[in-house]
């Protein structure tokens, strides 16, 4: 576990771990929410978290959790031209990744040191530092 890192990028699945009470995700959230590390999120991954939560738990829960994430102190990054182009290039070369995953990679490259993910395919992308935590 890499708790010495100062900048994490979270994917949608990692947010879901937090809300499901995962003890493996807790140390990272504790560091971010206490200000000892910075947590970054792509707007695209936040949208993915919203719709996947709504599919499983309904719109009311999805909206509540979405607003909690927005107010929790994460740095939420809207894709600009550079991030959008980088995400598209990732997608061209990695058809096994979702477009949201590609936005995570592009955002990671520019803003954070380590990706926190539940996606084993995303965690194995060469050239990135990631921490993979499997859902309970």
SS content category? alpha/beta
Distance between the ends:
17 Å
- Biggest sheet strand line-up: 3-2-1-4-5
Number of helices: 7
Shape: globular
Order of helices and strands: EHHEHHEHHEHE
**Which segments are poorly predicted (pLDDT under 50) over 5 or more consecutive residues?**
none
Helix content: 40-55%
Mean pLDDT, to the nearest integer, reads 94
Characterise this structure.
This protein has 136 residues and is an alpha/beta fold. It has one domain (7-126): 3-Layer(aba) Sandwich (Rossmann fold). The chain is 54% helix and 14% strand. It contains seven helices and five strands; from the N terminus they run βααβααβααβαβ. A five-stranded parallel beta sheet has the order 3-2-1-4-5. Strand 4, helix 7 (120-123) and strand 5 (130-132) form a beta-alpha-beta unit. The radius of gyration is 14 Å and the shape is globular.
What's a quick, concise take on this entry?
This protein has 136 residues and is an alpha/beta fold. The protein is built from seven helices and five strands; from the N terminus they run E-H-H-E-H-H-E-H-H-E-H-E.
Provide the descriptors you would attach to this structure in a database record:
136 residues; alpha/beta; Rossmann fold; five-stranded parallel beta sheet; 5 strands; 54% helix; 14% strand
Give the topology:
Layout (H helix, E strand, L loop, with lengths): L6 E4 L1 H8 L6 H8 L4 E5 H15 L1 H13 L3 E3 L3 H13 L5 H13 L2 E4 L2 H4 L6 E3 L4
